[in-house]
Amino acid sequence: MSRIKKISVAVLSVAAAVFSVAAFMAVRYYVDNKVSNFTKAYVLYVDEGMDGQAVLDSIVRNAGVIRPGSLERMAVKEGLDASMKEGRYEIKPGMSSVYVIRMIVNNWQTEARLTISGYIRDKGRLAAVLARPLQIDSADIAPLLYDDGFLSEFGFDSETVLGMILPDTYHIFWTASPEEVIRRLGTEYGRFWDERRRSEAAAIGLTPLEVSTLASIIMEESNVADEYPVIAGVYLNRLHKGMKLQADPTARFASGDFTLTRVLKSHTRIDSPYNTYMYHGLPPAPINVASKAAIEGVLHAQKHDYLYFCARPEFDGRHNFAATYSEHLRNAAAYRKAYKEWLSSRSEAV
Question: Which uninterrupted H or E stretch holds 308?
Answer without folding.
Answer: strand 308-311
